[in-house]
Every structure is written in C-alpha cells, then in structure tokens.
Amino acid sequence: xxVKSRNFLLMHRQALEKDIKTSYIMDRMISDEVLTLQEEExxxxxxxxxxxxxxxxxIILTKDNNSYRSFYNALLHExxxxxxxxxxxxxxxxxxxxxxxxxxxxxxxxKTILCEGGVPQRPxxxxxxxxxxxxxxxxxxxxxxxxxxxxxxxxxxCGKTVLTAEALRDHQLLEDYFPGGVHWISVGKQDKAGLLxxxxxxxxRLEHDSTLSQRPPLNIEEAKDRLRLLMLRKYxxxxxxxxxxxxxxxxxAFDNQCQVLITSRDRSVTDAVAGSKYExxxxxxxxxxxxxEILSLFVNMKIxxxxxxxxxxxxxxxxxxxxxSLIGALLRDFPSRWEYYLKQLQNKQFKRxxxxxxxxxxxLDEAMSISVEQLNDNYKDYYxxxxxxxxxxxxxxxxxxxxxxxxxxxxxxxxQEFVNKSLLFCDRNGKSFHYYLHDLQLDFLTEKNRNQLxxxxxxxxxxxxxxxxxxxxxxxQEDCMYWYNFLAYHMAGANMQKELRDLMFSLDWIKAKTExxxxxxxxxxxVEYSSILDxxxxxxxxxxxxxxxxxxxxxxxxxxxxxxxxxxxxPETSEVYQQAKLHAQRETGAFYLEWINKKSLKNLYRLxxxxxxxAVYHACFSKDRQRIASCxxxxxxxxxxxxxxxxxxxxxxxxxxxxxxxxxxxxxFVATCSADKKVKIWNSRTGQCxxxxxxxxxxxxxxxxxxxxxxxxxxxxxxxxxxxxxDLNKEYCRNTMMGHVNSVNHCRFxxxxxxxxxxxxxxTVKLWEARSANELKSIEIxxxxxxxxxxPDDVEVLxxxxxxxxxxxxxxxxxxxxxLLFDVKTCxxxxxxxxxxxxxxxxxxxxxxxxxVAVALSHCSVELWNIKSLSKVAYCRGHMSWVHCxxxxxxxxxxxxxxxxQTIRIWxxxxxxxxxxxxxxxxxxxxxxxxxxxxxxxxNQKHLQLxxxxxxxxxxxxxxxxxxxxxxxxxxxxKFAAFGQENGTVKVLQLLDGKVLKSQEAYRxxxxxxxxxxxxxTLISSARDSVIQVWNWQLSExxxxxxxxxxxxxxxxxxxxxxxxxxxxGTVKVWNITTGNTxxxxxxxxxxxxxxxxxxxxxxxxxxxxxxxxxxxxxxxxSVLHELKGYEACVRCCTFSPNNKLLATGDDKGEIRIWDxxxxxxxxxxxxATVDEGEPTHGGWVTxxxxxxxxxxxxxxxxxxxxxxxxxxxxLQTFYTNGTNLKSIHVSPNFKVYVTVDxxxxxxVLQKL
Length: 1249
Description:
The protein is an alpha+beta fold. Helix content is 27%, strand content 31%. Helix 2 (13-19) packs across helix 5, helix 12 runs parallel beside helix 13 (220-234) and helix 28 (520-528) runs antiparallel to helix 30 (539-555). It starts with a helix and ends with a strand.
C-alpha cells in the first residue's frame, strides 16, 4: 500500500474504529476479492464492535492499494459518507497504462475508475448474464462521443443496477469511450429538496481536488449549471450514471449535453429530455439453472448437493434475481430454513422475506407497492382489476376493452402507462397487443387485493355476459381463445355456481372449446372445479368428464368429429346422452344414429390420449403418478398430466425414432434413447436438455433410471451388444457391461439398485452387479423353447423384456409367446405361462403387488395374468394396432398402454380385473325380418350366438365346438343356421334349440364362406381352395363347382339357380348350381379379383382388383363396358345404386369414387374436407359399401363407418367404433338400421334417428 494511503488510514483510525459496523463492509470487500473468508472469520471472532473494526483495519494495513480503494468504496455505499470523505485524499493514483489484466476485464485501472466514480461493487454472490451485459455495452458504444441517454429498464428486482455496474467493468470500454471517468449517483424516489442534496453531493465529489473550494449550489438550477461546467471542462467524455430514476422531471436537472446512463422501472422516463436515446430491456426472469447457481454460491454448496427444496424455491422465485438473492442471503444466515422460506413464498408472505444489505427496500412487497403508489387514483383501480389475470397468460387488448367497456385506443393508453413503469409487460403480436404481468407482480396484487378477488372475478364474468349475451366468441376474434381458456376460471373465482355448471355442462360450449384447444384443458377444469360443480351431485360432472376422457383421442383429430353423435353413444342415463338427443331432435335435416345395443359395452379405460402423430413406443408414469412421459416414431418426447392428458411439454428430442423414455426417481429428469444412437437427459419441468451421451455405436433400445432418489444413475442398452451405466454428474459413461453377443433389447435396475438385468436377441437374460459392472448370472432362455422332439427350437429366441418382483427375489422374462418366472438366486424356473398361440408378447410389467402381470400383445390387446394361479384375470381391448408397451403406476392402481394406433390408454386395474372377455368375430350374418334385426355371430371362437339386435339379448347359444368357427349364415325364414369351421367341417343347425341337424367334413382347409339358397334346402360354401361346394343338406347330395385355378375370394347367388364367383386367379365365373357347369367365364383382371357386384336389373356386374382397376361388364355380351382407372391402391369393394345409374368403389387408400354406369365417367370422390397429416381418408381400407333405396345416400365401412351425400360427395356423418378394421356393413332395406363388428369383437346395431 502507498505510504500516503497507509498514513491516512492510521491518521483516521480512531474515528473509523468508533463508528463502523463491519459485516456489510466486509461483504463488499469479499466481492471485490480483496478480503478472504478466513480473514472475515478472524474479524467476526472479536468480541465487541470496536474490536472487530480494529481487526479489519489491521488486516487492510497489510494489503495493497486495491484494499484501500475497496474499503473507501464500501464506506461510501454503506452510508459512512463522512468517514469516506476523511479517506478521500488518500486514494492512491493509478495510470491507465498499468494493466494488471484479469479474465473479466477488471484491471487495476478499471478498479480505480469505478471506485472513484462510486460504482457499486459486485454483490457478494454474483452470477453473470452475459447477453444483457453485452447489450448495455453495445448501447454505450452507440453514444460515441455525442451527448445522449441509455435507459436500462425493467421491473423491481430484475437486476438493472448489478448488470449496469458489471457492464462498466470493461477496460477497453472505459479507455476508448469514457476516458474522463464514470460518476454514479443513486437517485431513487426524491422530492426537490432531496434531489438538491443529491446534486450538491455530486458537485462536491467532482470538485474534491479543486483548489477553489466553492460553496454548495443553493437551488436545482444553480446545481444544474455547475454540473454542466464541471462535466464540460473537468470531466469531458465521462459517463454519468443515474441509478433508479422514478420521475422524468428529475432528469431535467441532468439534461446538460453530457452522456448519461439511467436505470429505471419506467421506460418512458426519458421522454422529457433531448438527445439520442437507446434502450436495454432487462428481462424479468433468470433461467432455472442460474437461479440454482446463485443459491449454491450463497450457501457454499455444489448445485448437486442442494436439498430438494432448492428446485421448488427457484421455481417460486419466478426467476427474480432479487428474490433469489434475498432468499440466498437469509439461508446463508439460517441454513436450516429451506422449508420455512419455501412455505413463505408459496403462501405469498413477502413481508417475511426481509432486507438484504444491498437493496433499498425493507421487504419485497414494499419494493412493489412503491411502484403502484406512483399511479394516480383511477389508474390504481384499473391496475387492481389486473389482480385476477391468470398466470403466464398474454391477454389481448379486446379482453380488457370488454372488462372496462372502453374503446381499444383508450385501453391501450392506460396499459401503456403500466408498461412504461414496468408494472406490466407487452407483446406485440401482428397488429394486436397482448399484455401480461410477471408472476411476482401478480402474486403481490392477489395478496394485496385478496378480499376483493371474488368481486373482481364476478365483474369480468358479468362484462363478458353483457358483451356476448347468448352468443359465443368465434375464432376470428382476438379475444376468443382467452374466454375459452379462462371463462370457467373466472366463474370459479367468483363462486358463480349456477353459471359455471351451465357453462361446463353445455355440449355447445364443449364442442366449441374442444374444436379449438382439444379436450385436455376441459378435463383439467372438471377436476379443478369439481368442488363447485359437485355441490348438488357429482354424477353430471363425472358423465361429462368420462365422455371427454374416453373420446379425447377422437376430439383432437381432423376432420373434427360430430360431438352430438359421440354424445349419442354415451349411456342413456348420462346427461351427455340426454343433451345430445335433444340437440339431434332439434336439428332438422341432420343425420344421427342411435347405438341400440350399447348397454352391453363397458369402457375399462379411464383416459385415452393421442399426443403423438405416429406410433407410440413407450410411456411411463412419474413416481408421484401425476405425469406421464411418452415417446415414439414421430421423434418427440411428450410429458402430460395423468389426470387430464393436458400437455406439459413437447420436445423434438432426436433425429430418429425415440424407442424408450424414463423418469428419474424424483421426477426431475426424463431420459430418452433413440435409433440415432444418442441418449439424452431432459429437465422434466422446463424441457431443457441437460446432457447428451453419444458412446453407443448403434441404436439405443432402452433406458432406465435407478429406483432411489438422491443419486442419478441411468442404464442404457443397444444393438451394439453393450449395456452402459451413466452417472448424471459425470460427462462420460461410468461402466460398460460386456457379455451379450447380439442386440440388447431391454434393461432394468433391481428394486434395491444393486443389480441390472438385461435381455438380448442372443437368447439370454443376464444379471449384472451395478457397482462393479461384473456379470453375475446368465440364463439361457432358448433352452426353454423346444420342438415336438424335445430338441432346441431352430427359430431365434428373441428375449424382449424383463421385470423384477417388488422384493427383487424373482424376475419375469418375456420371449415369443411365453412368460417365464425365475428365482434370482438359483436361476431356477419357478413357473411359465404360454399366453397366446396367435401373437407374440411385446412387453410385460409386474404389478407392485407381485401377483398380477400385465402383458402387451402384438394383436392389439393387453392381458392381465395372476402369476400365482397361472390364470388370465383380464382381457383389455381398445387399441386398434400393436401394443408396444404396458406399465403400471408406482402403486399398481392403474396401468398405461401405448400403441401403433398413436394412442396411450390409462386403465384402472380393479375395474379391468372385474371385466369379462366376450369377443365376437367379424364374420356374421344378419336378417332384417318384420322390423326385427336377427344377428348370427361367432362368440369367443367356438360358440354361435343368435342375438336380437332390437333388445340386445342372446336368444340362442350353441355348445363349444371342437374346432374354431370361421364363418356362419342364417336362412331367410330364420329356421336354420349354418357354420364352417377351421378344420374344414360344415354344419347345419336348427335355430329353435341349437341342435345340429347335419354335418359334413367338406374341406381340408378353413371354411371361408357359406350361404343358404332362398329355399333354405341347399348350402353353398367355399374354403381356402379353388372349389365351391353346393350341398343339398336335406338330401345329402353335393355338387362341386371346379374351374378356378386359385382360391375362391367370394360368391353371390343369382336368380334361376345361377351363381357368380370370383377368385385370386383374376377370373369371374357364372355357374349353374344344379348341373355344376360353367355358363360364362370372364378373364377380368391381371391381379386377384377382390369384389364383385351385380346391378339391380341383372344386366351388368362390376369387378374390382388388386391390380388397381375396376371394370363394368355386360352379362349379355360377356364383354367389358368400361374400365375404371386412376386408383393408387387395390380396389377393395363396389356396389351399384338401386336405380342402376351409379357405381361406387372403395380402395385401400380410403378413397370412394362415384362412377356413371352409362358412360364410365368419374362423377366425384367422396372424401372429407380435411384429414390429419398421414391419416388414411377412411381410417384405413374401404371394405364395404351400400346405397340407400333412393340412390341419394351411401354408407361405407373401413376404419369406421361413414355416410355420404352421393350427389355432392360430402360426408353426412361418421360413427367412430371403439375398434377398427370393419369387414362389412349389413344394411336394412329401408336404410335405417346398420350392423357391423369391429376388430375388438364389439357388435354395433345402429338405428337412424
């Protein structure tokens, strides 16, 4: 230290020891890096205040010039101005050439300039925000050498002062642009007397080494004039910083052609002064990681060591640097109060979060309320109205126009006043403005106006009703989305029970809202406001909630389904059904359908969501069951609420399909792995990518976090044959487990995290020690698959998946169609179950109770098995395609399934276990007789049922047959039924009692079709071969129709004992069934003939083929009349209109074409206006078609049922079945009753309303 400086310290030592309190002064000196924490501890160990001050001065005397400057600056900023003045003349001089450089530009030259200029030190804890600091520097450079103003503005506590001071810690900036120095003055809220004192102090500071000591200026004008001369003559090219400016009139005192930087909450504060103006807006929020960094520095811990409450605290601080610093400073003094301060923030107890040394207001609420108090009285009332705005929502101007009953311009003027004072934020969106409050401002307002919130909510609802009356907002209006999202929130806030029930239980509202935003938000509202909605009875709310939960996957698609039709499918006791029925009856000319036999159907799932636009490969619950993460072929990771399906996060996570995702035990992170060979870790709340691991060399099939909180371990496995273990706190893989010789498909931690199990295509399951990565055990699964000769099966045994029991003693393994349960210690097989002979197991999961196992199957279903009794306890149908994954919730009360059909379904375990698994095959026959609908169906493969479609009752059921039934038919007089079996047998039975009258072993292959002739004496059948059998079952005589070279596709009975058949060989033949001779032979197509239809007048027939063409033929001339081209897929079905003028065809692309029979011209397509990208037009192939008697309407089956206006091609109605792949549609002669079965085995008898 310079001798002069040292002498000044010794000279004034007594005065310093007598007056100073050391704690805050040491904070500043530590942040200047001139005092160490050990030295601070030495000072604190002294007993009295005077002894502490003496120790601090002794320490400073042993140090360099920077310590003197830092001590001087600390005195100045902690209010010891008189003491600082004693040391002022001892400040050591420094030349700009002395560049003891440091990383951040803080050379000794910079320290001197800032110290002399009174620039605040860095806070004790400082986290840089480089983008904002650079923005301030850039605007300062824009000033050049010209006079002007830079305004750094933002809300209270956003870090304006700290960032401005940091921007000045730049050697190059100061030397090149402000060689005359910088002069910092903290202004704050001042009256004229206060401002004069500030100006007098500044003039005194700038004149301190002047030989002429002048008297202080006596008024503001004199002070302004003196300041102008000082800046012009003594400090040219210097920067004046005015911190915390509130009023524009204050600036006029400094408006004297110099360069000024100001910090303010009011953006418009420089409107009253002249010169160039530049602005820097300081955003109100820090990133989550920055917030954690500040806390960790305050409490001297690594981020990874912070307690669980740290994440919650940073979230509650809403990114405010001020609040995080206040909390951090408090925690430094009271390290055990994490929970206490978290509760204070959550309860909005801002008064209890008290002052830290470097902030000018006693508590957070004071800082905010001072800003509000600056408003004039009627503006205060308008600002109070904002207390009820929802958090994080940009509110369009129109909403506030309705609230205040004002013109747009008037409202914008009021709101601009708030924006200028940083009390409100504004986004410009195209031509319109959207406004929002920072979370802390909103918390402050709601706390301050707590007693008036209900009235404020009521006011906005009444203003809405006054404006819209009985109408609803339409999408073209800018306020539309706000009301659909938040009208219910305001009604609930106002406790307007009747209004809320009327709104939430209105199908009109539900239709309008779901069309705009989908169903998830509505489901969330039913849950959120259930206490108000259930005041009388919860049934109605449950009706609507269930309706949306089970139809959500339909309500998010294009074209938007008819919500009235969906409502008509609800149980008749449901309020949704009753409203839908009223709507349907009121709408004249509309086409609606009643599902007559819906009583028999019980929905076993609680929620269906469709978050992805392609196959969903994996989904899992968070530990608290509140959230679900899912991933799939669309390369996205989705996180949504388990209660409502409301989307929380959507991340385009990888460059290829994502194969697996998993939550960490504490729910903070989600891991994903992909065919792009990468593993990524995401913050599950913010969606930020924490890290990317790229050590696997092939696609990564599975990722799994460990089960215990506190340590983040992740296991991954890949086609590269390796399992890798990752510690999230490390950059590289912790361990690699080597031993498999083929792709590893699945891996899982044991419940205690000591072991990892892996499943491989090499036919083994291996158990590894997690700590050492050593292989402990290997089980050869392929040994348990043997052929009839007890030899190992030649086919590769791909081990798909495994699941640990809760105690870790057993492990369940899946391969092919078997479940195998092993003892972990001995590797003995405890039990095995063959789940299915027709499909493979895709995934399995142990229920936490250890008895139940859920199994996902390739044929669209999920089964629950009791592993102790080896019995199937539930059969879950609902998915329309392969099920890839099934996962139980942590408590086992529910499980979720994900599928190729793009949906995720959540099932309630208890509900599912009580259900039966009755399934009908899609082959059925229907007779419409005197208003009765009689249905013959194949039930659970081996029974026949005769069902009354009118009453949904089973009239007759046969005993189980020895071989599965493959087809069936009814006689027109309803006396007989016939059926074919997979073993080739054909049987005729009596409907009255189900007694088999005749049986014939007709074929060696499965029977495909059977039909009675009109006299019921003859049964015609075909199998998977080229022969048709004509069996007079009463006389036991048989005629064989031979001539086709390949298998028969199907046949139609014509008049006069004729039959039309078509085959995979591309030919169509006309037979005489009495003689067995071919009467006509048509070589129709180059590919298989898939369908034929005969015109009502009997003159023509049409054929459709896999060769992508359809043709119209003349019976009389045996020639083709028209070849119908232009198809892009197989033409699957066709039918003539009753008036013989039209032909309709349907293809595998889902398109329906209407043709003119006379000319062969294409009249038009039947197709919806819009379809979701990648969706087939008809949900898949068009499989069957039928015209109405007047030829004006058409019904088609495919992925679902559709009705069309034949003249225009427009869709009249869509009926979404629970399953898909409808093979046929049976239509009554009056076109009012329709019967079909979906691939889930559910029967639909529909009647036109």
